[in-house]
Amino acid sequence: MKILFITHLNQNTAMMNDTLHDSILHGLREIYGSNVIDYPGAWYMYKQEVNKRNFDIKKLWGNGFTFYDMFSNYDQIDRTDIENKIEKNYFDIIIFGSIRRSSKFFKKIVRSKSKIIFIDGEDNVTIDDNVLKNGLYFKRELTSSQSNNIFPINFSIPKKKIIKEINTNPKNILAPLIPHKYSTYIYSNEKDYYKMWQDSIFGLAYVRGGWWDALRYYEMLMNGCIPLFIDIDKCPEKTLTKLPKKLLEDIYKNYSWVLNKYFPTSIYKKKFLTAEKFFLYFNYLFKKKYTCEAFINDYPEVIEIKKKLLNYTKENLTTEHIAKDIVSTTLKG
Predict the structure, then answer these.
(1) What residues have CB less than 8 Å from 18, skipping those under 6 apart?
(2) Same structural domain for residues 241 and 262?
(3) Which residues share a beta bridge with 204?
(4) Domain identity same for 94 and 185
(5) 159 pLDDT exceeds 90?
(6) Nearest-angstrom CA–CA distance, 223 and 194
(7) Whole-angstrom Cα distance, residue 203 to residue 227?
(8) Interhelix angle for 245-255 vs 301-316, to 10°?
(9) Which of 52, 98, 128, 238 is the most buried (most CB within 10 A)?
(10) Residues 74-129: tens digit of each pLDDT
(11) Own/partner pairs for 227-235, CB < 8 Å, 24+ apart?
């Protein structure tokens, strides 16, 4: 299988990395190795290339955690004579890794006999109708689909980054990192960031700016932390299709009371603040104060939930799993 992966980097690129783009490229490379040609080249995913260019990886979105030390041997990928190879139908599949950010060689590619995939990982629900007739379209934040060519897609994480076993002696009932409370974003290296999730029973999760998917959920799950996902029951059917939404909904119903033990403004964005939350907080002031050990003693099932979610993550949420889905869907089409 020969695959050309058109990277999103171009002279107008504002943000160097694109998490969905990078996760798919990683999964494909894990399966097909150097037969996947990233062009012009996602050099920021190659550790040696980053060092050679003296690039500060912390300039990447998310501090360069999870994906940006995964590849090696940048110069050993054959990126020569790409236009001619497209015209000669050298590639079995050609993937636009971020069709909204780069459509390089578009006219040549749509005239080729290669199967074509468009990845749209933007924070919106719109579809680029102009490209639909030319291939399969995979959309993050998909709310509805009027075409057989459109499919949902999620973020995913590298298999090698998933912990082997959960931490059965966590320190935090609720993880100290709170979404969009930037004063809690204190982790300067990946190891400490992951350990924070590993040391926590629950992690708070909620919709960011109206868009559902976030790499943070997968980073929680791969480190054995249980997401308490606010409003997961309202998630559109065709969004977050790989996450165990029914299980996460049940978890939130059963354990959301944990959040009432924290002062509301310290954990909720304005849209989630209500008089009821303040009332519940003050009501819980007079109830039992839990340590992690006491909580697990009273609710030992959370350890089994952690194990169940970690196994689910290993089986369903890896970059390889998502890449296989994309390729198999394309070959069926």
Answers:
(1) 8, 97, 98, 101, 121
(2) yes
(3) 228
(4) no
(5) yes
(6) 6
(7) 5
(8) 160
(9) 98
(10) 999 999 999 999 999 999 999 999 999 889 999 999 999 999 999 999 989 999 98
(11) 227/202, 227/203, 227/251, 228/174, 228/202, 228/203, 228/204, 228/252, 228/255, 228/256, 228/258, 228/259, 229/205, 230/204, 230/205, 230/206, 230/256, 230/272, 231/206, 231/207, 232/205
- 332 phi/psi in degrees, rounded to 5: -65, -40
* Average pLDDT in the chain: 91
> Tell me, what DSSP letter sits at residue 299?
-
Residues 247 and 278 in one domain: yes
Domain count, the chain: 2
In this prediction, residue 224 carries a pLDDT of 98
Rounded to 5 degrees, what are φ and ψ at 244?
Answer: -80, 75
Is the pLDDT reported for residue 12 higher than 60?
no
pLDDT at 13 over 60: no
C-alpha 19/C-alpha 155 separation (Å) is: 7
Q: How far apart are CA 322 and CA 160, in angstroms?
A: 15
Q: Are residues 145 and 167 in the same domain?
A: no
Q: Confidence band (pLDDT; 50, 70, 90) for 181?
A: confident
Across 202-212, average pLDDT: 87
- CATH code where residue 129 lies: 3.40.50
SS percent in the chain: helix, strand, coil, step 5: 45, 15, 40
Domain that residue 94 falls in: 3-157+318-332
Q: What is the Cβ-side half-sphere exposure of residue 281, based on CA atoms within 13 angstroms?
A: 14
